[in-house]
Structure formats: C-alpha cells, structure tokens
Design brief:
This protein is α/β, with parallel strands linked by helices. It has one domain: Alpha-Beta Barrel (TIM Barrel), CATH 3.20.20. The chain has helices at residues 44-55, 87-99, 138-158, 172-177, 192-195, 197-209, 229-240, 269-274, 292-300, 310-314, 318-324, 337-342, 347-353, and strands at 26-28, 60-67, 103-109, 123-124, 134-135, 162-167, 215-221, 247-251, 282-286, 305-308. It has an 8-stranded parallel beta barrel, surrounded by 6 helices. α2 (87-99) packs across α3. The radius of gyration is 19 Å and the shape is globular.
C-alpha cells in the first residue's frame, strides 16, 4: 500500500507539449477488442466500452489499434481509419470521450505480415514465407506513409486530441525496424537510419499535416519481435529528441522485468529507457501494472505515466477507486463472465478475452 504522501502523484495532471493535459497519470492502454463492424466502422459496443473507461476516470483513453489501410487489418472487428466512411463513428467516439472527461488518442496501425490470413494481399518490408507476405515496393511504402498521415488527419477532423503511432508488437513499423524482418536494400532497409525511416516519416508527416495543438505519441516495443535492444535505445533517444513528438509509450509486458539481452541483465528493462534524456517528451510504461502501488512504483522509477490494460478491463473506474482508496486492488482472476459484462464488456469482446489463460472462469 503506497503512503498517502506518494499516492497523490498519480493524480497530478500530465502536461504534454501540446493540447489538453490529462487530469492524471493513468492511461487506458490501446486494447484489441474485436467489437467494431466488419467494414471498420464504430459499433455501439466499442463506443460503450471506451466511454465507460473515460467516465471511470482514466486521464487519457487510447483506442484499439485502428488500421490505416484495408490490407493492414490484424483482427476481426477492428476499428478502421482508412476511409472517410469511418469519420462519423470516429467523430462520435471522440465527442463521447471528451464529454466523459478524458483526453483521447486514436491509435494508428498496420499489421503488415501479421495481417489477417484471409486478406488477398499481405505485405511487409520483405518477403515472408511463413505468412506468404510479399515485399512492398518503394512506391507502396511511400503510399503507406501517406495513408498514416491521412488517417491522422481524419482523427484530427473527428475531434480526437491526438493519435498514437503503433510502432510495437511486431506490426509493420516494428517489422521495418527489425533487421530480421527487414531485408531491403533500398532507402527503407539496411542501416538503422534506413530501417527507422518509415517511423520518422510517419511522425514528421503527421506533425506537419495536423493542427498545432494535436498530440502525437508513439508506442514501441523494446525487445522481441526481431528487434535489437541497443538499436531500440538509440531509436528511443532520437524520438525523445524530436520536436514532433509528445510522448512515448513503452510496451514492456512486465514493467519490473529484466532485459532478455544478457548484456543488460541485473537491472530493469524500464530503467534503460527512463535514464535517457527525454527533454519535454513524456515517457510512459505498460506491463502488469495492476494496483496503485504498482503505478506509484513505476512513477518512482522514472515513468511520467502508466498505461493500464488488464486493470482497465476488469474495473472500468479503476482510477476513481484508487483515488478513494489507494489500497484498492482489482478482482482476482479468473473472474466470472457476469463481472465483465457489468464492466461494459460485450459478448464479442468476452470471446476474444477467453484467449488469455486464467482471465475468465469457465
């Protein structure tokens, strides 16, 4: 249980370089939920699930990954942002989150070689035998950059406070960053500068295309998915130095874990990144943060905010609960389906969550 003297730091506003400041340091992480319609338009279930978390006190609510191209879809029922037909739903969602008191961010995504297998044309940085993906042409990479930018402009038009570029979890930007998955010999492959070109082209393009107070974040993985930890430290330092960026979201799987790279054992993975010079860019962490004590520990170790997934699924008003009682903890898993239904989880989302062992009781 955190002391009364440290717990209030979670409820200090998070001042970002641009746009409104979230009222606290508790962010709803971007979570796949498969609830939207087959064409990528927003469903009532997805709207309800997200606005319920905004009403529950999360300072910033991030949507699920929203694909910027039709062939970048990674999940059934995925929210889309690749077509103007998506604008009415996106506008409804941005409005609902604002009215509920949260700062809003639309996560922008392309699955690359991890796209749904039933899609006709799966693409990535290079040919990939296991998935049948083919290498994108240079012109297609240029188009991908433009489509990320167009998606951000739709988010801006819809009234979102900002976007989060999904550069994590082995999706297309992470695939380009990886020397394992990116075997290109053109300006998009080879050196680290070339492999990072896609990420920075998207970031800089969005900053140039959207309104001055539009917030832009990046979510990255720091290891796994063919990534190299020293390279990711270098990329993160470059991101932190970019005036185009407002925050970085580190997806760590466990914020207390040690690095997998043997050269960095003996300290937490998180600490490698919190010691970087971040200027006025904020740095958040995600990974098994389930209590106020966990969140306070992450802040004490140098994070500016915490992004919460499972806790936000289990308890829609987790921030309000721990503000009232810092000793509060979410229900122990596995939980009964009825509990999740009360927390705004639809039958479709419930089916998806059954994939995670130990979460839902049979």
């Amino acid at each position: 249980m955190p002391s009364q003297s440290t717990a209030p730091s979670l409820f200090n506003p998070l001042a970002l370089k641009r746009g409104p400041a979230p009222t606290n340091r508790l962010v709803l992480a971007p979570l796949t939920n498969t609830q939207s319609h087959a064409d990528g338009t927003l469903s009532d279930d997805e709207y309800h699930w997200l606005t319920m978390r905004a009403q529950g006190g999360f300072g910033l609510v991030t949507t699920c990954a929203s694909h910027v191209q039709a062939n970048g879809q990674g999940f059934p029922g995925q929210l889309g942002c690749f077509n103007d037909d998506h604008l009415p739903g996106l506008t409804r969602l941005a409005t609902g989150l604002r009215e509920a008191g949260a700062v809003s961010s639309l996560q922008l995504h392309h699955a690359g070689i991890r796209a749904l297998s039933e899609l006709d044309d799966i693409v990535g940085p290079s040919d990939h035998a296991e998935t049948g993906a083919r290498a994108m042409t240079e012109a297609e990479v240029d188009t991908l950059v433009e489509d990320f930018i167009h998606a951000a402009k739709r988010a801006d038009q819809a009234g979102f406070d900002g976007v989060q570029i999904h550069g994590a979890h082995g999706y297309i930007i992470a695939q380009f960053l990886s020397p394992e998955y990116n075997q290109r010999q053109d300006r998009w492959g080879g050196s680290l500068d070339n492999r990072a070109r896609l990420l920075f082209a998207v970031l800089d393009g969005i900053r140039a295309a959207c309104r001055a107070d539009f917030q832009v974040g990046v979510r990255i993985s720091t290891e796994r998915f063919g990534l190299v930890l020293p390279e990711m430290l270098e990329i993160t330092q470059r991101l932190l130095a970019s005036d185009a960026l407002d925050y970085i979201d580190l997806s760590l799987w466990d914020f207390k874990k040690e690095p997998e790279d043997e050269h960095y054992k003996g300290r937490t993975l998180m600490s490698l990144f919190t010691e970087l010079d971040r200027g006025d860019v904020k740095l958040g962490v995600a990974g098994k943060i389930m209590t106020a004590a966990d969140a306070e520990h992450a802040l004490a170790q140098g994070a500016d905010y915490v992004a919460m997934g499972r806790a936000g699924v289990l308890v829609h008003d987790f921030p309000k609960r721990i503000q009232a009682d810092p000793a509060y903890a979410p229900p122990q898993t596995p939980v009964q389906p009825a509990l999740l239904e009360q927390e705004g989880i639809s039958p479709t989302f419930l089916t998806y969550l059954r994939k995670f062992p130990g979460l839902i009781a049979d």
